[in-house]
């Protein structure tokens, strides 16, 4: 079966293009009142994003070997509930778009299953050699993602 990479992830691909990690909020992430400082949520997103990219066979080392840099050019976070030191959080990352850029959405849930934070990041390919932004994912990256998705859906 030949699936062409789509601009948006299809519902049956979501299970393949998802990674969830558990994070225990460390002491240094909290302010004196015990609440997590807002900037630390991006580190939690990064932990889930790293797991997702590794699962797809295109982690940060593979990105570097491919000759492309992948800066984050857009991000958003929405804080729905406060989180405190010592809490255990499930952080999920889903690759939503991957034809022209990598758009990854995030959801953080506490142990009761309550959604406490959501957000997204957008990364674009930049040729490491020239520093020029590419229009669309490089062919080798697009093929690698398509092969991983195909294998996971068929297997």
What is the assigned CATH homologous superfamily?
Hotdog Thioesterase
Strands in their spatial order, largest beta sheet: 1-4-5-6-3
Q: Which band does the percent of strand residues land in?
A: 25-35%
Radius of gyration: 17 Å
Outline the biggest β-sheet.
5 strands, antiparallel
Count of folded domains: 1
Give the CATH class: Alpha Beta
Helix count, DSSP H or I runs of 4 or more residues: 3
Helix content: 10-25%
Mean pLDDT: 88
Shape, principal axes of CA atoms: globular
CATH topology: Thiol Ester Dehydrase, Chain A
What is the chain-wise order of helices and strands? EHHEEEEEEH
Low-pLDDT windows of residues? 1-7
Structural class: alpha+beta
Provide the CATH architecture.
Roll
How far apart the termini lie comes to 12 Å
Total beta strand runs: 7
Give the topology, please:
Blueprint: E1 18-24, H1 41-55, H2 60-65, E2 68-69, E3 72-79, E4 88-97, E5 102-110, E6 115-123, E7 126-127, H3 139-154
Antiparallel strand pairs: 1-4, 2-7, 3-6, 4-5, 5-6
3D structure, described in words:
The protein has a single domain, classed as Roll (Thiol Ester Dehydrase, Chain A), CATH 3.10.129. 24% of the residues lie in helices and 30% in strands. The chain has three helices and seven strands; from the N terminus they run βααββββββα. The strands form two sheets. Strands 1-4-5-6-3 form a five-stranded antiparallel β-sheet, with helices on one face. The longest helix has 16 residues, at 139-154. The two termini are 12 Å apart.
């Amino acid at each position: 079966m030949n699936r062409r990479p789509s601009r948006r992830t299809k519902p049956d691909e979501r299970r393949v293009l998802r990674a969830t990690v558990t994070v225990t909020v460390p002491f240094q992430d909290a302010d004196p009142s015990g609440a997590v400082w807002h900037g630390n949520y991006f580190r939690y997103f990064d932990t889930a994003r790293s797991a997702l990219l590794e699962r797809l066979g295109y982690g940060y080392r593979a990105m570097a070997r491919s000759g492309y840099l992948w800066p984050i050019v857009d991000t958003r976070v929405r804080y729905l509930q406060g989180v405190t030191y010592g809490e255990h959080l499930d952080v999920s990352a889903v690759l939503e778009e991957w034809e022209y850029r990598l758009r990854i959405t995030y959801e953080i849930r506490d142990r009761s299953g309550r959604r406490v934070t959501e957000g997204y990041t957008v990364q674009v390919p930049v040729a490491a050699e020239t520093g020029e932004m590419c229009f669309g994912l490089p062919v080798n990256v697009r093929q690698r993602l398509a092969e991983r998705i195909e294998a996971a859906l068929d297997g």
